[in-house]
Design brief:
The protein is an alpha+beta fold and 253 residues long. Helices cover 25% and strands 20% of the residues. A six-stranded antiparallel beta barrel has the order 1-2-3-5-7-8. β2 and β3 form a beta hairpin. The chain is globular, with a radius of gyration of 19 Å.
């Protein structure tokens, strides 16, 4: 089963809600609040940034979505992001963590250059989307986020989407899809109506932001040719799920 444009099967019956299911009961709210009070939730509390940007499917670059990254920095060379389809309380994770939509890992250009070429082909650059004003930290003044933007412009990301909400999936179905970042070439440009809708929501202008970011630089060396691989080859990546023999050797006597 490839991560294609076709839904992998019939949607579950119900009232059309996304995801399908009954409303949470008062008892469930009490259980969740109690657990929240007693547990540390340390990984979640490390998320320190909200980034709104755009992404497109590697196997079909005409499919473009607005994304909301909730970012935690592990060290100066590595960040990890839970990616949602919106920033409201009912946002769906585009990766299959509760109801998210995706996950992206971000690494410095220094680390990226150490990866084998076959691995580099799965990663995209962030330089263009940052300089073009597409990558924003909502409600954070530009002068406050400027240094972090300079830190992130030379980085590369690998983004997997496990819930293709844009094709109407009410549950995370089928194989995950590799996502790519916007680029300053014809096929890599984000649809103007998507940008306009996002900008109006946050009261910003991507075009104005682009003017203020002229001093931001990308990777210290020439852009690696294996990143944004579709730009060099016109080909993307899709996953097929295949039946395979299990390894049946027990890990213990």
């Amino acid at each position: 089963m490839a991560s294609s444009d076709e839904a992998p099967g019939a949607m579950p019956p119900g009232d059309g809600s996304v995801p399908p299911g009954k409303s949470m009961t008062i008892g469930q709210h009490v259980i969740d609040k109690g657990a929240q009070l007693m547990q540390s939730l340390k990984p979640i509390k490390q998320m320190s940034q909200h980034v709104c940007t755009f992404a497109m499917y590697s196997h079909d670059i005409t499919r473009q979505i607005e994304t909301h990254h909730y970012v935690s920095r592990v060290n100066q060379d590595f960040l990890q992001c839970a990616v949602y389809d919106s920033d409201d309380s009912k946002g769906r994770l585009i990766v299959n963590i509760c109801d998210s939509a995706g996950i992206e890992y971000i690494i410095s250009d220094r680390i990226f250059e150490t990866l084998p070429a076959e691995e580099q082909k799965l990663w995209h650059s962030h330089e263009y989307e940052i300089i073009a004003g597409l990558w924003v930290n909502p409600k954070v003044p530009e002068m406050v986020q400027k240094q972090e933007l300079k830190n992130l412009a030379p980085t590369y990301g690998k983004f997997w989407c496990t819930w293709q909400l844009d094709r109407g999936d009410r549950l995370p179905l089928g194989a995950p899809a590799l996502m790519m970042s916007p680029q300053g070439v014809n096929l890599g440009m984000v649809a103007p109506e998507l940008v306009k809708k996002r900008d109006e929501k946050y009261g910003i202008s991507s075009k104005d932001l682009e003017k203020t970011r002229a001093d931001i630089a990308g990777p210290k060396t020439t852009m690696n040719p294996y990143a944004n691989y579709w730009m060099q080859t016109g080909k993307g990546f899709a996953i097929d799920v295949e039946l395979t023999d299990m390894k049946k050797t027990a890990p213990f006597p």
